[in-house]
């Protein structure tokens, strides 16, 4: 039997970081104020034992179970994206089998008891098969009922067929006469359709003649348009030939004059280019030197700036440490700010605490205790300096300050005779020589002793531990350790170094000078480039038109090529134009051929458009004729067997008839046809009043279907009863055992009795009633009980289920909230008497004082924390 050994929680709901919660093997109680996170521990167990979704991220819960020496671990992890991972014994797996558990919450809606018993007893395994067979059986019964009704109708039809056999033989002759009339009418309709078909053929010939005339008109128009296009293109070719013969005579003489002018300008250009290139090279060298120098200065500047930023961050940390410390006072911060500002005033020598240092570590605490009275005392040169300091503190609201003037304190101090246990503080301190008189006046009236609490001395005494005993009996205790001295000293050092770095940065103007020089050099290089472009301007003005004609960038590109290239290029262009001309003529020939082909296609399309309506009409007529034949044939087939023989003869006669014979030898006129139609209508009325024998082959088939359906229904009912009996036997066996255990447990915990009874003995899983008789009360159903009575009954039911299913632990969440003290004591005695592990959240003293292990939950800054205590 597995029991909970421990629970490991990481970032689950109100629990941050990791917590390991151990549990007792019998009775563990979780206590704490409301909202501290007690129920979250049980939620964590439900989280790891089920796949229930939770609105949490990056959380892990690990449940450790133990059965004697065997240990199993179940872990569920949910990442930031909400994806779950399951681990059994630290191996990743798909979590399919969950540990059975029941948790009772306040105002929780109960699951139906029958559903719980079905799941625990195993009868639910037959539920799906039971429901499938039941639905199948119901469907088959409905079908069987429908087929039974049809069977009755089929049997009635068989009886009716016997009655109408004699009457049917009388109507056969009438049916034969009907078919003869219908055949005559059919041939008359075919004759009319053939006349219409001949008329349409004549109309088609007339339309063909019209389409040929239209085609001729369209071709003549398109030929005229093509001839006009050919004449226009020939005129364009003639103009191009004239231009090719005239242009070489105009371009060549102008080209020679321009070439001479270009050589003259080229010499000037080369001279200017050499000068500009030399200037640019010198400027580039100077720029490179300045760039390297500028880079070095920048590196140096970056290191200084980085050092400054580091010091600034360190200063912020020190300030935060000083401010966050619990023992720091506002006066201490104010005092250090005052010291940093007063020191810079003229005439200020320094604060008394900064001017004196202890030379013996043994008396260091005593010296600090004596100096604590002079924290805001400053030594100045003269009285004017003292007044300036006081006014400065008042203006800037730095606090109160005491001043000692150096020139006034010139009297020498006379050493008094001291006892053996007393030591003068002047012997264990070091100070500047010019301030010796001032310090002696301050320390002259107090001595240091090794005794813990001196009371026999008539002078002011300070112990080594920092306790000052005045001669009048007043005692002042000094705080030995000042954790802020080192931080404040370091802060002052950082401020001084930062100020010196600022001065260096402000004084360092060489970087700006180099940057200005670089800008000037860039400007000079740009001006040189502009001058170079200005030198090339005359060339572009003189030869600009020539460059555009020949496609050159400048005349240097032209000189690299041979002068003969121009004439060859002109000849090539002339040849190209000739080739274009030949191609155009070839294209014209091809276009004329294509035009002829297109014209032919166009004519065929026009003819098809004219004939389309007539052809569709012809097809409709042909289809109508086929339909008539098909309808006539179907009607003949559907008549009785005697009529079918007669129809075969008629079909044979129809195939022998020629269309021409129908047109010439049809013996009936329109008057005869109208007489035949009236006769046909009278025959149809007489036949409608009679009943024909129906086909019995369909009846035989339906009767077989009914028999097979009846057989299948009986088999399904047999299988359904087998599954139903298996399911019911499992359910009832489990219910009887559970009833015995529940009645024993309820009488044990309350002295009353209870029973669980199935509502329907044939189908026990359809519903279960839970009846309870509380001591000195009547039998009542569970739903009518009070809150405390319901809680006891529900707890007994859960204990019974745990015993039946052999599960090792039970989780309860404030199940004692509706119980009085008497019932609470009974509940505790019941839990202790049963061999079942219980983890319970409770706020009742009578519960958690009897548990074996207690887990305390409390909240601090919105985060749940834990305390463990084992009895």
Automatic annotation (TrEMBL):
GO CC, alphabetical: cohesin complex; nucleus
Subcellular location, record wording: Nucleus
Keyword Cell division: yes
Gene3D superfamilies listed in its UniProt record: 1.20.1060.20, 3.30.70.1620, P-loop containing nucleotide triphosphate hydrolases
Keyword Oxidoreductase found: no
GO molecular function: ATP binding; DNA binding
Keywords on record: Cell cycle, Cell division, Coiled coil, Mitosis, Nucleus
Origin: domain of life: Eukaryota
One of the protein's GO biological processes: sister chromatid cohesion
Sequence ranges assigned to domain SMC hinge in this UniProt record: 346-456
InterPro entries from the UniProt entry: P-loop_NTPase, RecF/RecN/SMC_N, SMC_hinge, SMC_hinge_sf
Principal location class: nucleus
Coiled-coil annotated residue ranges, if any: 273-321
A Pfam match: SMC_N
PANTHER family noted in UniProt: STRUCTURAL MAINTENANCE OF CHROMOSOMES PROTEIN (PTHR18937:SF12), STRUCTURAL MAINTENANCE OF CHROMOSOMES SMC FAMILY MEMBER (PTHR18937)
Protein name: SMC hinge domain-containing protein
Species name: Vairimorpha ceranae (strain BRL01) (Microsporidian parasite)
